[in-house]
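Quiz preparation item.
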């Protein structure tokens, strides 16, 4: 069974990477022709102004690759929960990107609209996890307590809202969100292999392969951005995948970069509103380091290293607990 899962993971990862390398040039051209080009907001560093007009919504392809991989190699109920989370997040992202591209509002969809959609996705993901029996989640010191249906639904709603927004906030520098996401999904893939959880293996491997292919075109200077289409999809899929390998409570450790990016925004906005003073030069956190003079490639390398450390600790914990039934 273990060798079977490893072979599937290798095949899916290689095919996903190959498909991405082959199809991204075509997609980038189609996005450019259709007018799906990035608008750069005023709060971004001045150096980002040259990014305006770069094709966006590139997340469409790595999401599609993962869906096709599930259809070809899996088609299980557990796999469908992750694929649904990915697709629903991508759909919300498409709506947000289209609103942004057309100039409807400063940030695309309204905050309330987005939160309601995210909460609804989380509700459906939670129901899917409950039906599939993925209610036991590892918690340090407590073993794998059973959240039962109500608990997993509530936690899923909160997690989908938090994680999808966190990945979205991280997507502000060429290659940053994709690199950190690829690292976290690689860690979840390792855990899924250890647990012989084939559905999680298939989708995680497809996303790792697709994201690495995307990075070829998203690395500085980026030829395409994933857009909210990609970042919201990845956030939703991270929650579902982590839950299926029983690591939902450990996701903040694996996604430590996403947590730091989110906290930086909360802290800076609170400081400005309450004390009329910036604690950081800019937020999210990657913009603060850009303002300090750190170049994009080094910034991405540093943040990805931190993501790798958090993910490694998560994997080591999961392996020390053994495979969860």
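Solution:
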């Amino acid at each position: 069974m273990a060798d079977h899962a490893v072979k599937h993971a290798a095949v899916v990862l290689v095919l996903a990477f190959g498909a991405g390398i082959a199809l991204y040039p075509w997609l980038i051209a189609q996005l450019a022709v259709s007018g799906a080009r990035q608008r750069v907001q005023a709060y971004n560093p001045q150096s980002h102004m040259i990014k305006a007009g770069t094709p966006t919504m590139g997340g469409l392809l790595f999401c599609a690759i993962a869906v096709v991989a599930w259809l070809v190699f899996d088609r299980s109920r557990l796999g469908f929960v992750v694929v649904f989370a990915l697709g629903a997040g991508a759909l919300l992202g498409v709506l947000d990107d289209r609103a942004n591209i057309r100039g409807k509002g400063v940030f695309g969809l309204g905050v309330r609209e987005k939160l309601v959609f995210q909460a609804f996705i989380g509700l459906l993901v939670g129901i899917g996890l409950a039906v599939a029996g993925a209610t036991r989640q590892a918690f340090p010191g407590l073993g794998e307590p059973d959240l039962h249906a109500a608990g997993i639904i509530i936690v899923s709603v909160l997690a989908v809202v938090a994680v999808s927004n966190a990945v979205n906030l991280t997507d502000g520098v060429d290659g940053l969100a994709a690199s950190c996401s690829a690292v976290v999904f690689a860690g979840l893939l390792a855990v899924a292999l250890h647990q012989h959880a084939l559905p999680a293996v298939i989708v995680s491997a497809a996303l790792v392969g697709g994201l690495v292919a995307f990075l070829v075109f998203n690395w500085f200077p980026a030829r395409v951005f994933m857009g909210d289409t990609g970042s919201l999809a990845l956030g939703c899929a991270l929650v579902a995948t982590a839950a299926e390998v029983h690591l939902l409570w450990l996701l903040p450790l694996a996604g430590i970069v996403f947590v730091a990016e989110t906290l930086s925004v909360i802290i800076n906005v609170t400081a400005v509103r309450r004390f009329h003073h910036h604690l950081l030069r800019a937020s999210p956190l990657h913009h603060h380091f850009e303002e300090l003079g750190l170049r994009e490639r080094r910034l991405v390398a540093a943040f990805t290293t931190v993501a790798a450390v958090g993910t490694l600790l998560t994997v080591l914990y999961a392996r020390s607990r053994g495979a969860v039934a």
